[in-house]
């Protein structure tokens, strides 16, 4: 199968590209810069130059492919409305290009904000609907294309997709610990995150592209709940720093933007995903990665 991957040089997207190639698939990647194009070419990946705002490039990539895997997002924490806008229009452009083809359309989505008070399941419908909602309501928009002959598969990612080179939430928490001289957690540290190693997440994406029925929601979750206090303690051990509680009122000044996520429980199960695709995570745990130095280089 030939897959067009947006975000093909990103943290998770680059692992997805490697997983697809290892499984014998051909890959076309969206490249925004010369450096990205060179990185993809070095792997033998075909290149479409463009970005999320270049809708023609998205359509060209989709037209050349048997499947589309949409991993890219602007992640503009200073202007989330712009990230939401670009995500929605990109999903619409790709969905329109795939309409009537029965080709797979694998769309990355977050687990945050789905439910409160319990772990989210694959049966939970995203409450984000419409352009003014989180990520522009792209998950539900992509699922709307099932009725138009697209094999949409949503893959929701744990808040920590971890491993060496991760630039996500745990990287920001580690940077805050270095800056403040203490590895903090919020309140009593009982808030918890799900986690998954990026290689396991990449394998789930590949299996979803190959096998998942239209309308499937998958959860890239290996560990259902790792407490934020345990995360802070592992960071403290890896950096040789003390560990202490941060009061909720000091969350922003201490952690920056990531503080509001660190104070929030974001957990989910992956039982349905495991049964459906015989997916069994094999990578190291989040705490093992932190303690092995994945975030201290």
From TrEMBL:
InterPro entries found in the cross-reference section: Epimerase_deHydtase, NAD(P)-bd_dom_sf, NAD(P)-dependent_oxidoreduct
Domain of life: Bacteria
Single GO term (MF): aldehyde dehydrogenase (NAD+) activity
Residues of the NAD-dependent epimerase/dehydratase domain: 4-79
Cellular compartments per GO CC: cytoplasm
One Pfam match: Epimerase
Region spans: Disordered: 118-137
Record protein name field: SDR family oxidoreductase
Organism, scientific name: Streptomyces liliiviolaceus
């Amino acid at each position: 199968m030939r897959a067009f991957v947006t975000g093909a040089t990103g943290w998770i997207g680059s692992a997805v590209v490697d997983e697809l190639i290892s499984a014998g698939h051909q890959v076309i990647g969206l490249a925004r810069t010369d450096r990205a194009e060179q990185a993809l070419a070095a792997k033998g990946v075909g290149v479409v130059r463009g970005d999320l705002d270049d809708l023609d490039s998205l359509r060209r990539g989709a037209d050349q492919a048997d499947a589309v895997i949409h991993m890219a997002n602007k992640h503009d924490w200073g202007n989330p409305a712009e990230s939401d806008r670009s995500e929605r229009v990109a999903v619409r452009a790709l969905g329109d290009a795939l309409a009537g083809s029965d080709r797979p359309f694998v769309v990355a989505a977050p687990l945050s904000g789905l439910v409160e008070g319990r772990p989210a399941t694959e049966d939970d419908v995203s409450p984000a609907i419409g352009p003014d909602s989180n990520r522009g309501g792209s998950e539900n928009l992509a699922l709307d294309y099932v009725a138009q002959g697209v094999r949409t598969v949503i893959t929701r990612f744990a808040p920590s997709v971890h491993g060496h080179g991760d630039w996500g939430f745990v990287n920001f928490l580690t940077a805050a610990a270095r800056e403040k001289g203490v590895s903090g957690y919020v309140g009593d540290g009982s808030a918890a995150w799900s986690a998954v190693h990026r290689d396991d997440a990449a394998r789930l994406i590949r299996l979803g592209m190959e096998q998942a029925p239209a309308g499937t929601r998958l959860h890239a979750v290996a560990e259902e709940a790792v407490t934020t206090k345990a995360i802070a303690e592992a960071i403290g051990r890896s950096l040789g720093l003390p560990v202490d509680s941060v009061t909720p009122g000091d969350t922003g000044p201490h952690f920056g933007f990531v503080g509001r996520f660190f104070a929030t429980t974001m957990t989910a199960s992956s039982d349905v995903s495991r049964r459906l695709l015989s997916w069994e995570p094999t990578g190291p745990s989040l705490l093992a990665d932190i303690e092995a130095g994945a975030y201290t280089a």
